[in-house]
Design a protein that fits this description.
213 residues; 7 strands; 7-stranded mixed beta sheet; Aminopeptidase
């Protein structure tokens, strides 16, 4: 089957958000972890689709989006926008949608806060050497056909055109780990995280990968 790789457009937003939710939490039943796809999609993709759509790409089968790569070419700017514009509105949305009243969501928030105080979310700043980042996912039914590899290649060519000297990403998927190693990324950092322990047996390892361009 032939897939097309193209720039993201606003018409792709709903499909990207859907795939974000479907592939979250190592594809465990997300309803056992967090019960609000609207908030989950906002957290995972809102910055990329709404504030830096020109750095995003999709893979399509006809009119259907079967994969995406959403990225940013300037991590410090991305963090500023998330901190100043996205997080405040998300917090309002959390209360408006009464997400804290759901027991599943409350347990997830508690585990995240506990992990934060354990230092599990502390990651060294690699943005000087690797100023760009990416988040990639492929529909489960379309994997094993090099769609991810093609998306990475298109994105790296885009970064080179922008004269970006390096790209980084994070994942806690062991399958993704092997994929990124195959694509020429190096492991920059790894740390255990416990906030999914109640759903996924044992702790997971969060990896930070980097690739110089």
């Amino acid at each position: 089957m032939t897939y097309n790789i193209r720039k993201f457009s606003i018409q792709d937003r709903a499909d990207v958000r859907r795939l974000c939710c479907e592939t979250a939490f190592l594809e465990s039943d997300r309803g056992l972890i967090f019960k609000d796809d609207e908030l989950l999609a906002d957290f995972l993709s809102l910055y990329f689709t709404d504030f830096e759509p020109h750095s995003c790409f999709v893979a399509t089968d006809g009119s259907k989006v079967v994969g995406y790569l959403i990225g940013s070419i300037h991590i410090p700017r991305m963090k500023r926008i998330i901190k100043r514009r996205i997080l405040p509105s998300l917090l309002v949305k959390v209360f408006y949608r009464k997400a804290f009243l759901n027991k599943t969501n409350l347990n997830f928030f508690f585990r995240c806060v506990l992990g934060f105080f354990k230092g599990e979310f502390l990651v060294p700043d690699y943005s000087k050497e690797f100023p760009a980042t990416l988040h990639i996912n492929i529909d489960k039914s379309c994997r094993g056909q090099d769609i991810g590899g093609r998306l990475i290649e298109v994105y790296i060519n885009f970064l080179k055109q922008q004269q970006i000297k390096g790209v980084q990403l994070s994942t806690f998927s062991e399958k993704a780990k092997n994929f990124f190693l195959k694509m020429g990324f190096d492991i920059l950092y790894a740390r255990k995280r416990s906030y999914l322990k109640s759903v996924i047996a044992g702790e997971v390892t969060s990896y930070v990968f980097g690739k110089k361009l």
